[in-house]
């Protein structure tokens, strides 16, 4: 059985998204995956090579003004060098985001990530959780408390620092990391069986 390599390519403006990136890392590592955290605002040539060698890339960014941060957009545009060579073709992809409000147009950021992945010929891995906190017996402490399917969506009060990231959102991000790593293992086993 091969060990999947998962890279988390993220930007964090105020530290909230970095907390989620670490949670995705922890979830993927729990499955035995090799995991790389890559801050795209400071990406190096060696880190680009890590992305190229990964089985899966998880994109993460805060949602600012209805989309991913400017720093993440700079990274996304720079991936065009990989697009020309199809370097990321058939890798798995997933995403996560955070904003100050419950909605905050986070879905648009996740859609931006999924379109980026599609342009690279990648296969999108959704969150795989039903919505939590959607009934009278639910709670804000449920996994996927904000009800996203496309990826992990988190909400942190804008007047709180990284310590204010909701524990349920951290647990949801960990679940995303586990799911991506497990799907990477399944995908690799399928390829090996051909």
Automatic annotation (TrEMBL):
UniProt-listed Gene3D superfamilies: 3.40.50.360
Superkingdom, taxonomy of origin: Bacteria
Listed InterPro entries: Flavodoxin/NO_synth, Flavoprotein-like_sf, FMN_Rdtase-like_dom
All copies of domain Flavodoxin-like, residue ranges: 6-151
Coiled coil feature spans: none
Pfam families: FMN_red (PF03358)
Name under which the protein is recorded: Flavodoxin family protein
Organism name: Streptomyces griseocarneus
């Amino acid at each position: 059985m091969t060990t999947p390599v998962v890279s988390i390519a993220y930007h964090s403006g105020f530290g909230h998204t970095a907390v989620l990136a670490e949670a995705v890392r922890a979830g993927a590592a729990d499955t035995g995956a090799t995991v790389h955290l890559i801050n795209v605002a400071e990406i190096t040539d060696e880190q680009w090579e890590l992305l190229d060698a990964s089985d899966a890339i998880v994109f993460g960014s805060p949602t600012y003004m209805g989309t991913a941060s400017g720093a993440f957009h700079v990274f996304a545009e720079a991936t065009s060098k990989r697009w020309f060579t199809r370097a990321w073709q058939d890798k798995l992809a997933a995403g996560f985001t955070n904003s100050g409000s419950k909605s905050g147009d986070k879905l648009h950021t996740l859609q931006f990530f999924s379109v980026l992945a599609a342009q690279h010929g990648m296969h999108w891995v959704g969150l795989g959780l039903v919505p939590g906190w959607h009934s009278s017996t639910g709670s804000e402490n449920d996994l996927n408390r904000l009800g996203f399917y496309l990826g992990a969506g988190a909400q942190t009060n804008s007047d709180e620092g990284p310590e204010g990231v909701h524990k349920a959102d951290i647990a949801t991000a960990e679940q995303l990391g586990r799911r991506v790593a497990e799907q990477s293992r399944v995908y690799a086993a399928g390829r090996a069986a051909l």
